[in-house]
Amino acid sequence: MSIYISGIGVSKGIAIGEAFVLEREKVDATQRTLPASEIKSEIKRFIAAMKLANNQLHDIKKKIAKNTADDILVFIDTHLLMLEDPAFNEGTISNIKKFSCNAEWALMMQSERLVQVFDEMEDPYLRTRKDDVLHVVKRIQTALSGKKDVHNGVSYKGKIIVADDLTPADTIMMQHQKVAGFITEYGGPLSHTAILARNLGIPAIVGLHHARQLIHRDENIVIDGFTGVVINSPDKKSLKYYRAVRRDDIAKRNLLNELSGKPAVTLDNEQITLHGNIDRPSDIRAIKKYDHTGVGLYRTEMLFIELNQWPDQQTHFKNYKRAVKALEGKPLTIRTMDLGADKEIQETMDHGPMAHNPAMGLRAIRRCLKEPQDFMPQLLAILRASAYGPVRIMIPMLTNTEELDQVFALIEDAKQILKKKRIAFDNKIPVGAMIEVPAAALAADAFARKLDFLSIGTNDLIQYTLAIDRIDDEVNYLFNPLNCAVLKLIQMTIDAGKKANIPVSMCGEMASDTLYTRLLLGMGLKYFSVQANALLEVKHIIVNSTLKNLQPEVEEIMKMHDDAEIKSRVQQLVNLL
Ligand code: PEP
Ligand code: MG
Prior knowledge:
Blueprint: E1 3-6, E2 8-11, E3 14-21, H1 39-64, H2 70-84, H3 86-99, H4 103-119, H5 124-128, H6 130-145, E4 160-163, H7 168-176, E5 181-184, H8 192-200, E6 204-206, H9 211-214, E7 220-224, E8 229-232, H10 236-258, E9 273-278, H11 284-290, E10 295-299, H12 301-307, H13 313-327, E11 332-335, H14 346-351, H15 364-370, H16 372-385, E12 391-395, H17 401-420, E13 431-435, H18 438-442, H19 444-450, E14 453-456, H20 458-466, H21 484-500, E15 504-506, H22 514-523, E16 527-530, H23 535-543, H24 547-557, H25 563-575
Parallel strand pairs: 3-4, 4-5, 5-6, 9-10, 9-16, 10-11, 11-12, 12-13, 13-14, 14-15, 15-16
Antiparallel strand pairs: 1-8, 2-6, 3-7, 7-8
Helix pairs in contact: 1-2, 1-3, 1-6, 2-6, 3-4, 4-6, 7-8, 13-16, 15-16, 16-17, 19-21, 22-23, 22-24, 22-25, 24-25
The structure holds phosphoenolpyruvate and magnesium ion.
């Protein structure tokens, strides 16, 4: 009889195969006190283990380097960098000396300190990076114990791996051996296994607690990466069903790949612009993997968060120039920094004033206008980068047009500085605004008259319209892009752009979800900026839609007020395909 268990589906697709339950031997890190005469040799033993861990990672890199994309190798490089970081080696060595203790315990103490730093981070992506610390520590501990690497001589071909957790190196090694899928007991959608599995296109489920007790080695299982369901010992009927789903999925992916590089034109010949969202220049590789297109949102605050301080002009410039060059002539929309709320840097957390309600506080452009000396280097760097290719400036979180006038004045100051120094830039650089505060959507006409483009940030627009903190799980059930008030604000913004004859884009998550593509097309949206892995899915809907058929349907939806009714009508639009 089939048994269904479920976790979190983080990488779409169906895998059918035998389970390979990965059991790791526990390492003993209990404290041992050493006599003074053994401290030196203990430090040597620790350094040797670090070297061994380093060699293992280099070996893995060598083995897989030929047919592995750079953006995947980066995960192993991160671990190599950690192994060289003084936070690991000097901290542990100082613990060995201070407590006259064994290396295992000294390393464990040090890793607990490092993990705590990550645990306290607000940003959910950075918080999950503590996994990197734990993975590196595990590798060093194994090296200290003298045990062999768990993968030595093992074949994973066609298997579904069931593990407590997987390191990036595990994941990449297994993919290299053509593993069919992954199940882990820990981790969430932002864990490395999840990100890598998505990049590698392997179905994966994470957060399936006790998976290693529920699933046995060599048992036949099915994993459904769409829903997060695992079917243990599937019967004939379920197998038949999932084989058919897998076949359709593979056919769909092949079809999607054929859309790469093709224009996003509707069946009635309307040209739609489809761009990608990035957090850092290296993300452009992922965009190019799917479709060589421009960037509609570059979230530059990631640069601040990763450096944990305000970058100088040169650091900004280096990053922006890298992004412009990587895009090879396609447009780059650089959003000025949106620090604050859930994106904060340690410096201000330590010293700055903490708002009671940071999402409503000194965030994004408000903060830049309050501290123009910190904002100016970014503006100068964006202008300088515009000499190397098409660049647009995008301002987040505007509430009124007075703020916009202040931004224009600062941009003008920056231009004058560069002119005086005879530094090249695009004097006609387009300036646009994110419409993500309801006040700005309601006054979109006024913004549109002053700007070159608008871009709707639905993540915040929904948060502020519905008064729900977008990162608060307790009220997440209220987060609804299809709420009629949200739809009205989106419509007003699109109409304002049309009236002023300027492009209106959408770069919030709503644009990446194919459930909404036809609704948005019917509302008149012509520019979408989406996550890299949604580029082809959204394009697929666009090229199979007829705008003039959608418009009357959407006009009716716009008259509705009931959430459930709206959802069902929007779903019907999708099913028209
Ligand atoms: C948005 O609010 O929709 C948006 C794209 O910006 P961010 O998610 O970075 O706040
Ligand atoms: Mg936003």
